[in-house]
Design brief:
This is Maltodextrin glucosidase. This protein is an alpha/beta fold and about 450 residues long. About 30% of the residues lie in helices and about 20% in strands.
């Protein structure tokens, strides 16, 4: 039993969510924008979430991933004392707090890089960065160049083989635990981090706080490598992120069925891992933009909550808001939202649907911990079984625009209640045919 499967996440990108200025002037007094998170706690509780993943909150120049000070909350959001109050309020309401840990790189305004700019080869921090080369100039016209994250010269890659750098970052992580009582860290760009560093980080934080949770951002590759070699608890599940929307767009459930079987069935490569599952996030276009037909969002979110792993909702997507990248900018993906406006002017249908899914998940050990077994898969219909400790749950999905009477399905004979649809009883002893409404699903819990 992996207790991480109890988690249901809400994901906020604070700088956008709180309406912070696009750039930091490093002179203004701290604002009180962070308190906006407290105003959203009742909404989060209605959605049933019990964990909040917050994007970068520490002092940076621009988007948060260009860290300037690991020990200070970004003045555009507030200050350290304000954030402590936010964490206390979240904890008082049963919501854990997971922060973005940006350990691969820092911003050009970080004091160590400023020292390198000023002192050049005499800087005591010249070995803090990867690939420093004084024989060439950087695109910013520094008298040296350096390695970056993905070619972005405003993100200076740290040398995680340097013990001083490692100690500095580990001390920062300990500070976040000791001062703010956070419950976990999401490792930004974990697919580029040094494995030795991740192991040391894991040992440090778990010795500091029992059940501390480490999740890595990994896009491609065998995710289990980061769990095994890096000693992380989970990684982002980008494979299923893609499968969730494209299986609906292409009317081809075989794609997501293949991924779920490969990952979670008996002998699956992530069978015992609580993967972090999501429909969208701060780096990709909103699922309401990606999906071709909005009706498919209902089966998509149902699948997200019933499949193995940990579900996560990106703020605003519960109202089906759209967001698209424009000219390489992520600003539309990370908007400032007003809770009163959203509740008054947006449809609550999806909000209520997700709330119901949360309650179904919370009340079912089979959904949280059960094994995974595919029952049938067709282009527009798909069914799988979750089973744990004598409890059996069958999830069935129909992406067709037409109502379907399903006759060939391999669902075990028995009596079931449909917990998604008014707890209607379904007798599969005497009648093997199952009616599926268009763009909808059924969650059948066996009772006899």
């Amino acid at each position: 039993m992996n207790l991480a499967n109890e988690k249901m996440f809400y994901h906020i990108y604070p700088l956008g969510f709180c309406g912070a200025p696009e750039r930091n002037d490093f002179q203004s007094n701290p604002t009180e924008r962070l308190y906006k998170i407290i105003d959203w706690i009742p909404h989060m509780k209605f959605l049933g979430v019990n964990a909040l993943y917050l994007g970068p909150i520490f002092e940076s120049f621009e988007h948060g991933y260009d860290t300037v000070d690991y020990y200070k909350v970004d003045r555009r959001l507030g200050n350290n004392e304000m954030f402590k109050g936010v964490v206390r309020a979240l904890h008082d309401n049963g919501i854990e707090v997971v922060l973005d840990g940006v350990f691969n790189h820092v911003g050009r305004e970080h004091f160590t890089f400023k020292d390198l700019q000023w002192n050049g080869q005499n800087s005591k921090y010249k070995d803090w960065f990867s690939g420093v080369d004084f024989s060439r100039r950087s695109p910013y016209n520094d008298n040296f160049t350096y390695n970056t994250w993905d070619g972005n010269y405003n993100l200076v890659k740290l040398n995680l083989k340097n013990p001083e750098v490692v100690e500095y970052l580990l001390n920062a992580a300990k500070y976040w635990i000791d001062e703010f009582d956070i419950d976990g860290i999401r490792l930004d760009a974990a697919d580029t981090l040094d494995f030795d560093f991740m192991r040391k980080l894991s040992e440090t934080v778990k010795n500091r706080k029992q059940n501390f949770w480490l999740m890595g951002e990994v896009v491609h590759g065998d995710y289990s490598r980061w769990i095994k070699e890096g000693k992380l608890d989970s990684t982002t599940n980008y494979e299923c992120y893609k499968g969730l929307y494209s299986s609906h767009n292409d009317k081809n459930y075989f794609e997501i069925a293949h991924s779920l079987k490969r990952q979670f069935s008996k002998g699956g490569i992530y069978q015992d891992i609580a993967m972090y599952n999501f429909a969208d996030n701060h780096d990709v276009e909103r699922v309401a933009t990606t999906i071709k037909k909005k009706e498919d969002l209902y089966t998509l979110y149902t699948m997200l909550y019933i499949m193995p792993g940990i579900p996560s909702i990106y703020y605003g997507s519960e109202w089906e808001i759209e967001g698209k990248k424009w000219n390489g900018s992520d600003r539309e993906l990370r908007p400032d939202l007003d809770i009163n406006y959203m509740n008054s002017n947006k449809s609550a249908n999806m909000v209520n649907h997700i709330s119901k899914l949360s309650q179904i998940r919370k009340s079912s050990q089979a959904i949280k911990y059960g094994n995974y077994e595919e029952i049938f898969v067709k282009q527009e219909q798909f069914g799988f079984k979750r089973e744990y400790n004598g409890e059996m749950v069958i999830a069935i999905f129909n992406s067709s625009e037409n109502e379907v009477n399903l006759k060939e399905h391999n669902i075990p004979a028995g009596r079931y209640i449909d917990v998604l649809n008014d707890n209607n009883e379904v007798d599969l002893y005497n009648n093997r045919e199952i009616k599926l409404y268009s763009n909808w699903g059924r969650i059948l819990k066996r009772i006899g």
